[in-house]
Amino acid sequence: MKKWQKVLIFTGTHILVAALSVVLAYGIFLRQTDGMSKLQQLYRLIDDRYVGQYDEQTLFDYAATGMVAGTGDRWSYYVSAKDMNTFNEQRENAYVGVGITISPREDGLGADILRVEPNGSAQEAGIQGGDILYKVEDRLVGEIGVDGASALIAGEPGTQVKITVLREEQELEFTLKRKHIQRAVAQGKMLENNIGYIRIENFNTNCAKHTIEQIKTLVDQGAKGLVFDVRYNGGGYVTEMVEILDYLLPEGDLFVSQYYDGEKYVETSDKNCLELPMMVLVNQDSYSAAEFFAAALREYEWAQVVGLPTVGKSYFQETYEFADGSAVSLSVGKYFTPKGVCLQDEGGLVPDVVVEVDDTTAAAIYAQTIDPKDDPQLCKALELLQ
Fold first, then answer.
1. How big is the CA angle at 205 (ends 199 and 209), to the nearest 5 degrees?
2. pLDDT per residue over 123-167, tens digit each?
3. I need a labelling partner for 111 at 20 to 30 A (CA). Which of 6, 30, 187, 218 fits?
4. Does the model's pTM come out above 0.85?
């Protein structure tokens, strides 16, 4: 036999032995984990055999995220323990910060400042929507990303943070004090011809209180009609939405919730109502409660809807917290309009009058920097109210 043939035979034998060893080890592992779920087996395998280092909590967070994503439901999501504080702040419309909303730029220059919160230290210092967040504590935002910048801006109330913004290629440096910020959930103002305008940011904590306060103020000032703006409104609590609808609409059904087990709950309105001409502005970023708010007013023929078709989010979620401080927000039922329409089945709420806007105008509407006369959707609503 030739030498190379011997080598091949020996090598092949070694490969065969190694393969048999792997199969044998795998078989022993399966017997040891018999009766466990696949996730339990996988965790046991990683814990026993993985050659590298890993963080157990991170492993569980990824597993939980993947399991929820595996339902195929875009509305259910997992919240890790480290993100729960931010999650709760959003629901409560309150947080500690400087009062800016940022988004990454494609050119890597930094982050666009989309919105400046009223009464925040950023607004007080003169920072504007449309500025570019360039540095935080002398670190380039283009390098650390939006998450890194947000982490540096976050901190204890009363402490300071240095940020640099770009405005028309000019660098402007600010030292801002972190403070408790209560989001202005509803903002109202009187427009021409005594038409009251109310922008509702979301339907989370304090929405009903602030919105009804704005309605009363505008009515006292002589408003002859109202425009409710729920564009870019991500929804929120049903209880907040129902309270506003109850204030506006006459007696009847307002909203229907149907749980996974088929049980239904119907929210109703009393006889008291506000009889004024009304309009509602919506767009592709009006979600859930914002959509059903507009739908209810239209079904009662209390308002017309203007803007762009909405998302069509009819699944509602309940939040379940775990012992480690994390939570899952899981879809457990469907919402229906007063007439029993599921907007998810309809593909969203289609406005009575569809009005398109370009990207520049849309950004200005979101940042709240647009003049009313330059807002085509608002102008159409005002025209219809006349």
1. 60
2. 999 999 889 999 999 999 999 999 899 889 988 899 999 999 999
3. 187
4. no
Other CB atoms within 10 A of residue 25 CB: 11
Do 181 and 155 form a contact (C-beta atoms < 8 A)? Answer: no
The CATH number given to 94-181 is 2.30.42.10
Q: Token pair of 13, please?
A: 């034998």
* Domain 185-385, classified CATH 3.90.226.10, yes or no: yes
Q: How far is CA 66 from CA 128, 213, 332, in A?
A: 38, 43, 18
Judged against a pLDDT cut of 50, whether residue 12 lies above it is answered with: no
What lies within 8 Å, CB to CB, of 219 at 6+ separation is 196, 274, 276
Question: Is the pLDDT assigned to residue 214 strictly greater than 70?
Answer: yes
State how far the Cα of 174 lies from the Cα of 165, in Å rounded to an integer: 8
Closest CA relative to residue 240, chosen from 207, 279, 286: 207
Domain coordinates of the chain in residue numbers? 3-54, 94-181, 185-385
